[in-house]
C-alpha cells in the first residue's frame, strides 16, 4: 500500500476564519444584545442587564483576542522551527 493511501478518521480541520477579530466582535456583541433583550422581555432590570452584557462582551472579546494571538504565535514558532 502506498504511503498516500491510508484511512483518515474524523472531519478535516476547518480553514481559519478570514476575519477572526471582526467575527469575535459580532458574535459576542450578539450575545450581549440577547442578554439585554431577555432582561427587557422578562421585565427584568435592563440597566443591570446592560452592565452585565458590557462586562461579558469585554471579557469574552479580550479572552478570545488573547487566544487568537497565542495561536498565531504558536503557528509562527512552528514555521520557524521547520525552517531551521
Structural account:
- Helix 1 (20-41) runs antiparallel to helix 2 (46-83).
- It is built from two helices and no strands.
- It is mostly helical.
- 71% of the residues lie in helices and 0% in strands.
- The protein is elongated, with a radius of gyration of 20 Å.
- The protein has helices spanning 20-41, 46-83.
- The longest helix has 38 residues, at 46-83.
- The protein starts with 19 loop residues before the first helix and ends with a helix.
Largest sheet geometry: none
DSSP E strands, number: 0
- Structural class designation: mainly alpha
Q: What gap, in angstroms, lies between the N and C termini?
A: 32 Å
Beta-strand content: under 5%
- The tally of helices reads 2
**Globular, elongated, flat, extended or rod-shaped: what is the shape?**
elongated
**What percent of residues adopt helix (DSSP H or I)?**
over 70%
As residue ranges, the low-confidence spans are: none
The topology string of helices and strands comes to: HH
Short description:
With 84 residues, this protein is mostly helical.
Key descriptive features of the protein:
single chain; 84 residues; mainly alpha; 0% strand
What is this structure's SSE topology?
Blueprint: H1 20-41, H2 46-83
Amino acid at each position: 500500500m502506498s504511503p498516500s493511501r491510508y484511512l483518515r478518521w474524523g472531519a478535516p480541520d476547518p480553514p481559519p476564519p478570514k476575519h477572526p477579530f471582526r467575527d469575535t466582535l459580532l458574535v459576542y456583541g450578539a450575545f450581549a444584545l440577547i442578554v439585554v433583550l431577555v432582561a427587557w422581555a422578562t421585565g427584568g432590570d435592563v440597566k443591570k442587564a446592560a452592565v452585565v452584557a458590557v462586562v461579558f462582551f469585554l471579557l469574552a472579546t479580550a479572552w478570545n483576542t488573547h487566544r487568537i494571538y497565542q495561536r498565531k504565535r504558536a503557528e509562527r514558532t512552528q514555521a520557524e522551527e521547520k525552517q531551521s
